[in-house]
């Protein structure tokens, strides 16, 4: 019997796949809410859901590209403590970079998407922001002593 999977089913398939299973197992999956009967109405719903997901992905990609163009070539300024002998104290972390970026540009970043190590010295550091699998924005962090 053909069914449409509404959830991932171990050993049978992933969500939104059409699979052929035994009658009893199909009834079990339908009753448990993991599958729907394969018919014209349910197939139409599946196609509409896939079209909505594709549209959502397209909109997210466009938003990420717009965000990338805003982030690229920006530079923010962060301060690090420097002692009398020129030694730096502490470091600048991803959290601090996100906070300063939002203060200075008005754009909020997710610290999990930043690709950087903690900054321990004075200078300019490039920071990458992975917005999507193939969309990476780059900005600079200028570090000065305080």
Summed up, what is this model?
This protein is an alpha+beta fold.
Beta-strand level of the residues, as a percent range?
25-35%
Q: What is the name of the CATH superfamily of the largest domain?
A: Ribosomal protein L9, C-terminal domain
Main beta-sheet strand count, sense and barrel state:
5 strands, mixed
Quaternary structure: single chain
The percentage helix is 25-40%
CATH level 3 topology of the largest domain = Ribosomal Protein L9, domain 2
The dominant shape is elongated
Number of strands: 8
Q: From the helix content, strand content and strand pairing, which structural class follows?
A: alpha+beta
User: Helices and strands, in N-to-C order?
Assistant: EEHEHEEHEEE
Alpha carbon gyration radius? 25 Å
Q: What would you say the CATH architecture of the largest domain is?
A: Roll
Distance between the termini: 72 Å
- The largest sheet has its strands arranged as 5-4-8-7-6
Uncertain residue segments = none
Give the total of domains.
2
Written account of the structure:
The structure is a single chain. This protein has about 150 residues and is of the alpha+beta class. It has two domains: about 60 residues, Ribosomal protein L9, N-terminal domain (Ribosomal Protein L9, domain 1, 3-Layer(aba) Sandwich), CATH 3.40.5; about 80 residues, Ribosomal Protein L9, domain 2 (Roll), CATH 3.10.430. It has three helices and eight strands. Strands 5-4-8-7-6 form a five-stranded mixed beta sheet. It has a three-stranded antiparallel beta sheet with strand order 2-1-3. It starts with a strand and ends with a strand.
């Amino acid at each position: 019997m053909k069914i449409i999977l509404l959830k991932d089913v171990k050993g049978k398939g992933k969500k939104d796949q059409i699979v052929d299973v035994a009658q009893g197992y199909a009834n079990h999956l339908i009753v448990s809410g993991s599958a729907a009967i394969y018919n014209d109405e349910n197939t139409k719903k599946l196609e509409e859901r896939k079209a909505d997901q594709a549209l959502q992905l397209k909109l997210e990609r466009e938003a990420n590209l717009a965000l990338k163009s805003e982030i690229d070539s920006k530079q923010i300024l962060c301060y690090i403590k420097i002692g009398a002998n020129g030694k730096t104290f502490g470091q600048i972390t991803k959290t601090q970079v996100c906070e300063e970026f939002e203060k200075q540009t008005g754009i909020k970043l997710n610290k999990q998407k930043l690709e950087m190590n903690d900054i321990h010295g004075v200078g300019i550091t490039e920071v990458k922001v992975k917005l999507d699998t193939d969309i990476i924005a780059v900005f600079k962090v200028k570090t000065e002593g305080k």
